[in-house]
Amino acid sequence: MIADQVDKYMDLIEKSLKQIQDRKALIQRFQLDLLRTRELHRYFNYDQFMELANKNLIKILILRGLPPLIKSPHYHVSLPWATFASNSFSVVKIRGCDLGPEINSKFPCLRVLSLTFVKLDEEIIDSLLANCPLLETLTLQLEYYDDYCAHELCNLAKIKLRNLPKLKKATIGGVDKMEIESLDHIQVIVLHCKSGPYDIGDEKLINLVCCDSIKELRLYSMFRKQYIQDLVAKLPNLETLTYHILSRKGL
């Protein structure tokens, strides 16, 4: 039975961790590639894995679920509450999972946060970022591409980045608008906008307020020439501008 195999596997992992603890060695990295067969999820207890990880105060957490498939129904693993029970993480990278309805954990040590193919809304994002005072690198990829077509995982119109005093790099994909306010240390912005050339009517599609530290800007979308010129004019220390002409229908 699959359930018996999982139990044996968990026992093996727990014994291995016990041996490491007896030697007073710390586990720095915990990576879990989640099962790819839908039927197996009935037998799999993620709580057990996360409890083992949290006991060791790990620094790096990587969880990888199913990538989105156009010809198959989306199946995202719902992460247990135990996933965010630890406040020792410095790096969290999650792909193809659901975070759950409430994210109230604090991440005082978190420096890198990457959420790829994760269903998010403004409330979840605000809650997460409000508890990451040391965050330096942020990646939010909310859409995926197949045969040069973009597919949305959630309808997120806007992202606001503020009160992140240490943030240096932000990579955002799958939104219509981004607002960045008073981030003194941010140097790199990578933005994949959903809007195409006929969608742009708001002059604040990318709203940068007091962000003179930006040195590199990468844009993936379709913007009017004048719009880009006006945007660059607001960035006195910009050294590198990369512009990839993309639309929701392809290159």
From TrEMBL:
This is F-box/LRR-repeat protein 15/At3g58940/PEG3-like LRR domain-containing protein. It comes from the Eukaryota. It holds the Pfam family LRR_At5g56370. Residues 74-144 form the F-box/LRR-repeat protein 15/At3g58940/PEG3-like LRR domain.
